[in-house]
């Protein structure tokens, strides 16, 4: 999971070196950053990013307090003191020497225009709750595997932002250039403010990047914000896949909020253990429910993705506790283990990893490492269209990564498969809305908007549980229904087109054409798994993919718990509409029944062949009175 916050004040760097760098605690004023971290047993902050070379830094180098003040408090070179002193020794005046160390536009010039400068963006990467439980209660090997996967996933997500997203802007945003070199300071945290396990890293991304020709300019932070979800799904997918492959685990969907997308958690980690570690969520749940109810009463609908993030932020602020005294990781792990044993018993804590491996083995035996890109493209396009109506490539890419998480259940996949699925969803099932204007620069591919022509699923109501009233289906639930309907249609078309006997030639030809339009058999990832058998017939391949997709689909969609058709009509509004339709249908049936039927001639009644021909259903028969048959 990935969240973003802004660092917009001159003294924001103090908050990081006194609080964030100190494990979200409160560092004593009379202690240096290095000394306080050593005394508390906390890891120091380290530098990351490809932009370090231009500043004379190396990846993994320790972040000092003075560097934080210069870089994130003044937007200056981390070694500005030395550079400025050398220029003064060479005879430069103080102002010229100071400006020579500034990265881009000076802060004073920005404030002189009465604009609040943005110094950095705080990207916070956090593992799923089940992985945090395994990391906190597992043995040393399990802890190291999860920490290593966490670090690699962060590096992968930040590299993707550098390669595909980051841009510098100048001339009020009219001029832009790629910026594949960010400057990042990373700080590792082990627990939340209640002292319970919460493995997460704060990555402070400097709002400056160097252009290829040398000057430093501000980042296009709007692009970074727009791609936060895609970067977060990449982090989660990368980390979950590495941990599951390394430890032999698998994932299962866990519904956090009814009607919203489930979270893919490690199979075998009980909900009680997740609740034990998620103390902040337990504090936020009643507050979040209260403000969400107010939102629903005011807007007559569930909040969207942006609304949920905003409500979650308010709930977090309302329940935010005071800073704590940080402790070393070994001391925290001992306390976590004792707390879990007192609550759940030693057998449950010591057998956690083995239960996860047993559950993972069962899932891996049922779900093979295979991804059908045709079905994946339909699923991604249908969900994004139903949720957003109009969308960009970043939305499709994020959904493609979610599809891989739901389908593979922690299995490894070929690198670039998420991009391949996203491109297939855009090229085969979407149409471009952005119109290039003559005489103007063509927009970049990631700035294009798309839509689709899928059938828009109708809303329905879902019966309430635990005494709660019925609720209207969410956009995500309607998106799942639309996607499953399209996937089933494609499966049916494949099976029919690959059936040698029992299907008319015209039907087989039509379904074969439909299959060709929806599935590129020559694609490099058409059915992607390490030991694919290329000798499978189309019928065998379709059957294998069908079984795999049904096995990999989250259980709540198959069981009909959240999309149960039996609950769709159980509302006063829909019951009234159904009654009106029933009355109209009965009246129409009586009119048809009362119509006088023409008498058959005697010779026709005696001739069975002519009688059968007379009663053959015509194309327009049964369309109601008034039609000329």
Annotation field: number of helices: 26
Question: How large is the share of residues in beta strands?
Answer: 5-15%
How many strands appear in the DSSP assignment?
Answer: 17
Radius of gyration: 30 Å
Outline type: globular
Sheet of most strands:
5 strands, antiparallel
In words, what does this structure look like?
This protein is α+β, with helices and mostly antiparallel strands and 629 residues long. The protein folds into three domains: 2-75 and 117-277 and 328-366, no CATH class; 371-436 and 443-567, no CATH class; 572-614. The protein is 51% helix and 10% strand. A five-stranded antiparallel β-sheet has the order 1-3-7-6-2. A two-stranded antiparallel sheet has the order 4-5. Strands 8-9 form a two-stranded antiparallel sheet. Residues 501-542, 548-571 and 599-629 have low confidence and may be disordered.
Question: Quick recap of the structure?
Answer:
This protein is an alpha+beta fold and 629 residues long.
What keyword list fits this structure?
alpha+beta, 3 domains, two-stranded antiparallel sheet, disordered C terminus
């Amino acid at each position: 999971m990935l969240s973003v916050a802004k660092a917009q004040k001159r003294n924001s760097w103090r908050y990081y070196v006194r609080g964030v760098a100190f494990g979200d605690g409160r560092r004593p004023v009379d202690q240096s950053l290095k000394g306080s971290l050593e005394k508390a047993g906390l890891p120091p902050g380290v530098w990351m990013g490809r932009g370090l070379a231009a500043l004379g830094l190396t990846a993994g180098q320790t972040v000092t307090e003075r560097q934080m003040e210069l870089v994130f408090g003044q937007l200056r070179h981390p070694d500005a003191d030395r550079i400025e002193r050398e220029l003064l020794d060479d005879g430069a005046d103080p102002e010229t020497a100071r400006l020579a160390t500034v990265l881009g536009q000076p802060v004073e010039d920005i404030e002189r225009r009465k604009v609040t400068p943005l110094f950095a963006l705080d990207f916070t990467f956090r593992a799923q709750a089940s992985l945090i439980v395994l990391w906190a209660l597992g043995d040393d090997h399990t802890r190291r595997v999860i920490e290593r996967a966490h670090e690699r996933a962060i590096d992968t997500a930040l590299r993707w932002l550098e390669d595909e997203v980051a841009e510098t802007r100048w001339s009020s945003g009219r001029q832009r250039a790629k910026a594949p070199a960010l400057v990042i300071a990373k700080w590792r945290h082990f627990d939340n403010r209640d002292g319970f396990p919460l493995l997460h890293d704060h990555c402070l991304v400097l709002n400056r990047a160097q252009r290829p020709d040398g000057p430093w300019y501000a980042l296009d932070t709007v692009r970074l914000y727009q791609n936060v979800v895609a970067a977060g799904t990449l982090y989660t997918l990368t980390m979950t896949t590495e941990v599951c492959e390394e430890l032999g685990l698998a994932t299962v969907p866990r519904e956090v909020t009814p009607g919203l997308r489930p979270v893919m958690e490690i199979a075998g980690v009980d909900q009680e253990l997740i609740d034990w570690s998620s103390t902040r969520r337990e504090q936020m749940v009643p507050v979040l429910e209260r403000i969400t109810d107010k939102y629903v009463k005011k807007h007559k609908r569930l909040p969207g993705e942006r609304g949920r993030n905003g409500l979650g932020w308010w709930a977090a602020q309302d329940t935010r506790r005071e800073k704590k005294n940080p402790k070393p990781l070994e001391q925290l792990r001992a306390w976590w283990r004792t707390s879990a044993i007192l609550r759940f018993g030693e057998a449950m804590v010591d057998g956690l990893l083995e239960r996860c491996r047993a559950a993972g083995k069962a899932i891996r035996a049922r779900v093979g490492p295979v991804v059908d890109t045709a079905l994946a493209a339909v699923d991604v396009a249908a969900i994004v269209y139903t949720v957003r109506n109009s969308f960009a490539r970043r939305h499709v890419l994020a959904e493609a990564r979610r599809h891989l998480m739901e389908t593979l259940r922690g299995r490894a996949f070929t690198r670039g498969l998420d991009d391949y699925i996203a491109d297939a969803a855009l090229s085969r099932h979407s149409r471009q809305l952005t119109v290039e204007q003559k005489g103007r620069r063509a927009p970049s591919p990631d700035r294009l908007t798309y839509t689709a022509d899928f059938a828009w699923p109708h809303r329905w109501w879902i019966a309430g549980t635990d005494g709660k009233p019925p609720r209207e289906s969410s956009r995500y639930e309607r998106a799942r229904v639309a996607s499953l309907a399209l996937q089933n249609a494609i499966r049916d078309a494949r099976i029919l087109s690959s059936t040698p006997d029992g299907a008319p030639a015209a039907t087989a030809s039509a379904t074969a054409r439909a299959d060709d339009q929806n599935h590129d058999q020559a694609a490099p990832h058409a059915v992607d798994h390490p030991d694919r058998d290329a000798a499978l017939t189309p019928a065998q391949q379709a059957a294998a993919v069908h079984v795999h997709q049904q096995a990999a689909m989250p259980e709540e969609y198959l069981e009909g718990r959240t999309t149960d058709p039996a609950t769709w009509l159980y509302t006063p509004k829909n019951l009234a509409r159904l009654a009106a339709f029933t009355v109209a249908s009965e009246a129409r049936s009586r009119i048809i029944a009362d119509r006088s039927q023409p008498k058959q001639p005697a010779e026709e009644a005696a001739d069975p062949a002519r009688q059968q021909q007379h009663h053959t259903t015509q194309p327009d028969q049964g369309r109601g009175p008034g039609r000329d048959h």
